[in-house]
């Protein structure tokens, strides 16, 4: 699957809460650190679609990676096989 296919899955999900996550590597004076952060949350698919397109198309930081998730309320997300997350591998930190 391509990157935008995964975005579409998040946008089309039936769960009410739409989250946009950003994964990036921050460089400090001594090291690099992987950061995953929630950058947008809404109940509206259209707002999510507009925001993710804006973030992707105006991404000044080529190191950032965005993903959309559709999640239910009042649920322990760690019980799912895959929940909102972005993997930052060791090779990204070298």
Structural description of this entry:
The two termini are 27 Å apart. By secondary structure, the protein is an alpha+beta fold. It has one domain. It contains two helices and three strands, in the order H-E-E-H-E. Strands 2-1-3 form a three-stranded antiparallel beta sheet. The longest helix is centred in the middle third of the chain and has 13 residues. A hairpin with a 4-residue loop joins strand 1 and strand 2.
- Strand portion, in percent? 25-35%
Number of contiguous helices: 2
| Tally of structural domains | 1
What is the strand arrangement across the widest sheet? 2-1-3
Q: How would a crystallographer describe the biggest sheet?
A: 3 strands, antiparallel
- End-to-end C-alpha gap: 27 Å
Query: Radius of gyration, Cα only, in angstroms?
Result: 14 Å
Question: Looking at the structure, what is the overall shape?
Answer: globular
Helix coverage percent: 10-25%
Order of helices and strands: HEEHE
Low-confidence stretches: none
Secondary-structure-based class equals alpha+beta
Question: What's the rounded overall pLDDT mean?
Answer: 90
Number of strands: 3
Which descriptors would you attach to this protein?
31% strand; alpha+beta; globular; 94 residues; 3-stranded antiparallel β-sheet
Describe the protein's topology.
Blueprint: H1 3-12, E1 17-27, E2 32-42, H2 45-57, E3 65-71
Describe this structure in a few short sentences.
By secondary structure, the protein is of the alpha+beta class.
């Amino acid at each position: 699957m391509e990157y935008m296919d995964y975005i579409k899955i998040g946008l089309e999900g039936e769960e009410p809460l739409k989250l946009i996550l950003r994964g990036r590597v921050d460089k400090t004076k001594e090291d690099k650190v992987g950061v995953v952060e929630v950058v947008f949350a809404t109940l509206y698919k259209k707002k999510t679609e507009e925001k993710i397109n804006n973030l992707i198309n105006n991404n000044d930081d080529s190191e950032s990676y965005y993903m959309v998730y559709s999640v239910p309320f009042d649920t322990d997300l760690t019980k799912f096989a895959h929940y909102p997350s972005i993997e930052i591998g060791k090779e990204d930190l070298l």
